[in-house]
Amino acid sequence: MTADTEEPLGSVLPPPVLHGIPNCDTVKRARAWLEDRGFEHRFHDFKKAGVPPEALARWIEHLGWEALLNRQGTTWRKLADDEKEAVVDAPSARAAMLAHPSLIRRPIVEWPNGEISVGFTTDLFKQHTGFMVTAW
Fold first, then answer.
1. Does the annotation mark 24 as catalytic?
2. Using one digit for the tens of pLDDT, what is the confidence trace for 36-59?
3. Does residue 68 contact residue 90 with C-beta atoms inside 8 Å?
4. Which of 15, 102, 106, 123 is least crowded, fewest Cβ atoms below 10 Å from its Cβ?
5. Strand ranges, E, within the chain
6. Under 8 Å CB-to-CB from 76, ≥6 apart: which residues?
7. Catalytically annotated residue among 18, 24, 60, 104
8. SS3 helix, strand, coil % of the chain, rounded to 5?
9. Is 108 within 8 Å of 28 (Cβ atoms)?
Protein backbone atom coordinates (compact mmCIF):
# COMPACT_ATOMS: atom_id res chain seq x y z
CA MET A 1 0.00 0.00 0.00
CA THR A 2 1.09 3.53 -0.56
CA ALA A 3 0.84 6.21 2.07
CA ASP A 4 -2.29 7.48 0.28
CA THR A 5 -4.14 4.18 0.64
CA GLU A 6 -3.04 2.94 4.06
CA GLU A 7 -5.66 2.25 6.68
CA PRO A 8 -5.73 4.65 9.63
CA LEU A 9 -3.55 3.44 12.52
CA GLY A 10 -6.57 2.93 14.76
CA SER A 11 -8.15 0.41 12.45
CA VAL A 12 -5.24 -2.01 12.80
CA LEU A 13 -4.82 -1.93 16.56
CA PRO A 14 -5.22 -5.33 18.17
CA PRO A 15 -7.86 -5.81 20.85
CA PRO A 16 -6.74 -5.64 24.48
CA VAL A 17 -5.55 -8.87 26.05
CA LEU A 18 -7.06 -9.64 29.43
CA HIS A 19 -5.01 -12.11 31.48
CA GLY A 20 -6.45 -13.97 34.42
CA ILE A 21 -8.42 -16.92 35.69
CA PRO A 22 -11.96 -17.40 34.35
CA ASN A 23 -13.59 -18.18 37.71
CA CYS A 24 -12.12 -15.07 39.41
CA ASP A 25 -14.96 -12.68 40.26
CA THR A 26 -12.93 -9.60 39.31
CA VAL A 27 -12.01 -11.13 35.96
CA LYS A 28 -15.67 -12.00 35.37
CA ARG A 29 -16.70 -8.40 36.09
CA ALA A 30 -13.99 -6.99 33.83
CA ARG A 31 -14.90 -9.28 30.93
CA ALA A 32 -18.60 -8.58 31.36
CA TRP A 33 -17.96 -4.82 31.42
CA LEU A 34 -16.05 -5.00 28.14
CA GLU A 35 -18.57 -7.34 26.50
CA ASP A 36 -21.59 -5.33 27.64
CA ARG A 37 -20.12 -2.26 25.93
CA GLY A 38 -19.17 -4.08 22.75
CA PHE A 39 -15.39 -4.00 23.24
CA GLU A 40 -13.65 -6.93 21.64
CA HIS A 41 -10.87 -8.46 23.72
CA ARG A 42 -8.79 -11.60 23.92
CA PHE A 43 -8.63 -13.66 27.09
CA HIS A 44 -5.50 -15.47 28.27
CA ASP A 45 -6.32 -18.10 30.88
CA PHE A 46 -3.48 -18.52 33.41
CA LYS A 47 -4.85 -21.88 34.54
CA LYS A 48 -4.91 -23.46 31.08
CA ALA A 49 -2.13 -21.66 29.22
CA GLY A 50 0.16 -20.65 32.07
CA VAL A 51 1.80 -17.29 32.58
CA PRO A 52 4.04 -16.25 29.69
CA PRO A 53 7.43 -15.49 31.33
CA GLU A 54 8.13 -12.63 28.91
CA ALA A 55 4.75 -11.08 29.68
CA LEU A 56 5.34 -11.35 33.45
CA ALA A 57 8.71 -9.63 33.01
CA ARG A 58 6.96 -6.83 31.07
CA TRP A 59 4.27 -6.44 33.75
CA ILE A 60 6.87 -6.27 36.52
CA GLU A 61 8.80 -3.66 34.57
CA HIS A 62 5.69 -1.51 33.99
CA LEU A 63 3.80 -2.01 37.25
CA GLY A 64 6.33 -3.25 39.81
CA TRP A 65 6.25 -6.65 41.46
CA GLU A 66 4.50 -5.32 44.57
CA ALA A 67 1.47 -4.24 42.50
CA LEU A 68 1.21 -7.69 40.91
CA LEU A 69 1.70 -9.95 43.93
CA ASN A 70 -1.58 -10.75 45.66
CA ARG A 71 -0.74 -11.26 49.32
CA GLN A 72 -4.42 -11.18 50.30
CA GLY A 73 -5.59 -14.29 48.45
CA THR A 74 -5.96 -17.93 49.37
CA THR A 75 -2.92 -19.00 47.36
CA TRP A 76 -0.62 -16.70 49.36
CA ARG A 77 -2.13 -17.81 52.67
CA LYS A 78 -1.58 -21.47 51.75
CA LEU A 79 2.12 -20.99 51.00
CA ALA A 80 4.59 -22.23 53.59
CA ASP A 81 6.07 -19.46 55.72
CA ASP A 82 9.52 -19.98 54.24
CA GLU A 83 8.10 -19.51 50.72
CA LYS A 84 6.41 -16.27 51.76
CA GLU A 85 9.54 -14.98 53.49
CA ALA A 86 11.60 -15.72 50.37
CA VAL A 87 9.60 -13.20 48.29
CA VAL A 88 11.65 -10.07 48.86
CA ASP A 89 12.36 -8.58 45.41
CA ALA A 90 11.41 -8.72 41.74
CA PRO A 91 13.30 -11.95 40.90
CA SER A 92 11.91 -13.86 43.89
CA ALA A 93 8.39 -12.53 43.27
CA ARG A 94 8.65 -13.47 39.58
CA ALA A 95 9.66 -17.03 40.50
CA ALA A 96 6.78 -17.32 42.97
CA MET A 97 4.23 -15.96 40.45
CA LEU A 98 5.45 -18.32 37.72
CA ALA A 99 5.20 -21.26 40.11
CA HIS A 100 1.79 -20.15 41.44
CA PRO A 101 -0.10 -18.08 38.82
CA SER A 102 -2.93 -17.45 41.28
CA LEU A 103 -0.56 -15.16 43.18
CA ILE A 104 -0.90 -12.60 40.38
CA ARG A 105 -3.52 -9.90 40.92
CA ARG A 106 -6.19 -10.02 38.27
CA PRO A 107 -6.99 -9.08 35.68
CA ILE A 108 -3.86 -7.87 33.97
CA VAL A 109 -4.80 -6.02 30.79
CA GLU A 110 -2.42 -5.19 27.98
CA TRP A 111 -4.12 -2.32 26.17
CA PRO A 112 -3.71 -1.53 22.45
CA ASN A 113 -1.79 1.68 23.23
CA GLY A 114 0.92 -0.30 25.07
CA GLU A 115 -0.27 0.50 28.58
CA ILE A 116 -0.73 -2.24 31.16
CA SER A 117 -3.19 -2.22 34.03
CA VAL A 118 -3.92 -4.50 36.96
CA GLY A 119 -7.31 -4.92 38.59
CA PHE A 120 -10.71 -3.67 37.54
CA THR A 121 -12.63 -0.52 38.24
CA THR A 122 -15.10 1.10 35.91
CA ASP A 123 -13.07 4.33 35.94
CA LEU A 124 -9.89 2.50 34.96
CA PHE A 125 -11.60 0.67 32.12
CA LYS A 126 -13.39 3.83 30.93
CA GLN A 127 -10.01 5.54 30.72
CA HIS A 128 -8.52 2.78 28.59
CA THR A 129 -11.54 2.08 26.42
CA GLY A 130 -11.86 5.81 25.81
CA PHE A 131 -8.50 5.60 24.09
CA MET A 132 -9.72 2.63 22.07
CA VAL A 133 -12.78 4.53 20.86
CA THR A 134 -10.74 7.53 19.73
CA ALA A 135 -8.09 5.28 18.14
CA TRP A 136 -10.59 3.18 16.22
1. yes
2. 999 999 999 998 999 999 999 999
3. no
4. 123
5. 17-20, 42-45, 108-110, 116-118
6. 69, 70, 84, 103
7. 24
8. 55, 10, 35
9. no
